[in-house]
Amino acid sequence: MRVTNISKLTGRKHTRDLPITLAELERFEAGELAHVVWPHLSADDREFLVTGITPEEERDLLPPEDEEAWGC
Length: 72
Hints:
Elements lengths: L1 E5 L6 E5 L4 H8 L4 H4 L5 H9 L3 H7 L11
Antiparallel strand pairs: 1-2
């Protein structure tokens, strides 16, 4: 299914082709958690469905999560 979402990070509109159904999307929109509705999707795909953020945006715009990068 082709899904279009707007990034909460940049406001850009992105479209991705994901292996989901309309029924699953409706469950999510009704309040069911993304990881419950789509356990078969990658974390990146679920992040896109929840926030509209793509892996490229996350890599380019958000700080790394690695503790070494933060000097910890």
